[in-house]
Design brief:
single chain, 483 residues, alpha+beta, elongated
Length: 483
Amino acid sequence: MTTMTETSARFREFKMPDVGEGLTEAEILKWFVQPGDTVTDGQVVCEVETAKAAVELPIPFDGVVHELRFPEGTTVDVGQVIIAIDVAPGGGDAPAPAAAAPAQEPVEAPEAEAEPKGRTPVLVGYGVAESSTKRRPRKGAAAAPEAAAVAAAVQAELNGHGAPAPAAVPPQSGAPAGGRPLAKPPVRKLAKDLGIDLATVVPTGKDGIITREDVHAAAAPVAAEVPAAVASPVAPTPAVTEAPGVVSDSARETRIPVKGVRKAIAQAMVGSAFTAPHVTEFVTVDVTRTMKLVAELKEDKDMAGVRVNPLLVIAKALLVAIKRNPEVNAAWDEANQEIVQKHYVNLGIAAATPRGLIVPNIKDAHDKTLPQLAEALGELVATARDGKTSPAAMAGGTVTITNVGVFGVDTGTPILNPGESAILAVGAIKLQPWVHKGKVKPRQVTTLALSFDHRLVDGELGSKVLADVAAILEQPKRLITWA
């Protein structure tokens, strides 16, 4: 979709693009420029987080930043203007830039301008839709007065009065005449989370700005007088039963908004768990020879410059097992009620990141040599840790590996990545007593768990795949004889 508009010969606007097909919004994580900064074509101006990944957005023209339309932390709809650029600074008359506070101390979160209702561009490949691009109303401001009224009524009932006593009116509110209360974005978010209407808060900050302490002070009476289940503007969570009259301390729990990547993961996992009939099988295997192979590969000059670890050999073992049992590499087409056989393997690797669990995949992993696979694994992990994994890198996976062993866990029952046929969980590799050549000896042992979609993979096929992986890890020479 078009991501820029021309407001005059001098000013051009850049819109929030659809950075991954099917997305409708993104959160602005960080601005790398401020009004007055010079930018060039291709320069990254901000980082946004979608439901799939964090993405850096480059500006498509040269100029000077005229205005940032939204502060950091704001969720913006695809198609809304996020930045205006003066492409001809110093030339001709132009409206003065809107006053903007420094990035580290923004006072106001500017409202998006309403555009005429009509045919508005939407997502790539989805045509246009009749809509208005007004910004969605904030939920906190509407919910807080209602919650306060309910709380007062309940308290009055608890005290045995027929009607609640009038609420004390503060000497002055945080709202200046004809405007919104003055507060920084983090303070606004805190007030929203606590269900506090900023218009009722008495400001103590410089120039009438509401501080965090002001919000906490406004929240304290509500927490002290009203049961938490009533005061909270969101659905209460089950609490431990307490004696009558005992009030829960709000400081004992923290509410974390679920959005972006974490929200998408939660929705996808619920969809997968209740759509695909999961079956999980387990096998415990002696991987002593595999660990010796890993040690030898680390010293091999052909593997110089790449990271060699057990996961590399396990990944190669799974690829060989899929080659021997190609029917496992498939997907379910619900619309056509068909099994779609894949003749390629995009190997997903589950990676824990600060933004949640993501599953980027190595494209055409089945065609890669061991050194190439090692290089691809290293790049995948490094990119994920830096939070730079692109939506394209997470699309099109066919089979996944999740290494829970790095956390000291023996095994688990992994949930399928949506659209995939199987996922292999690798447990911790530990030195354990094991019967080897008729004698009990200390051996390196691990447990593997394979979950698969029973619509695609029956018990026999799933067992063959898991047994093949185990056999390769027990005797790594099978990587050659079975390849």
